[in-house]
Amino acid sequence: TLSSTEAEIEASVCIVKRMLNIKLLLQELNININNKIILYQDNLSSITLLTNGEGYTGKSRFMRVRYHFIYELIQSNELQIIYCPTEHMRADILSKPYVGINFVNLRNTLLTPI
After folding, report:
1. Rounded CA gap, 20 and 112, in Å?
2. How many degrees, rounded to 5, is the angle at CA 37 between CA 31 and CA 43?
3. CB 86 within 8 A of CB 32
4. Among residues 69, 60, 56, 64, which one has the least CA distance to residue 17?
5. What count of other Cβ atoms lies within 10 Å of the Cβ of residue 104?
6. Which tens digit of pLDDT belongs to each residue from 70-95?
7. What is the pLDDT of residue 25?
8. 4-45: pLDDT as tens digits
9. pTM of the model as a whole
């Protein structure tokens, strides 16, 4: 990708597709899941692009398709995107060089149940 926003949209699409597959699997197993999927995101630009209805303004078709996939799920109330500050994103400890108190705080969140 050429920007962090584009990368976040790509990652959002990937995880939402997997979450939808898990939801379908649970339904086939007669485990009723009526809750919407909640996606925590720390990139405000990608949240704005995905939720405001204006669409992806880039020139590449595949990004427009990905944008509309997410946007339609939001509009049908199957998906909600919630802003979560970077310092609270648990997975970031695996991909960013945290040190000191930030590292300790994220490590502690990994060790405690959700």
Report:
1. 26
2. 155
3. no
4. 69
5. 11
6. 889 999 999 999 998 877 777 777 77
7. 92
8. 888 888 889 999 999 999 998 998 998 887 788 999 998 888
9. 0.73
Task: Yes or no: say if 109 and 87 are a contact pair by the CB < 8 Å rule.
Answer: no
* Secondary structure (H, E, C), 65-90: HHHHHHHHHHHCCCEEEEECCHHHCH
Neighbouring C-beta atoms of residue 88, cutoff 10 Å:
12
Residue 20 sits at φ, ψ, to 5 deg, of: -65, -40
Give 83's strand partners: 41
Q: Is-contact 9 66, C-beta < 8 A?
A: yes
DSSP the chain: --SHHHHHHHHHHHHHHHHHHHHHHHHHTT----SPEEEEE--HHHHHHHHSSS---SS-HHHHHHHHHHHHHHHTTSEEEEE--GGG-GGGGGTS---HHHHHHHHHHHHS--
The 10 Å Cβ neighbour count of residue 102 is: 15
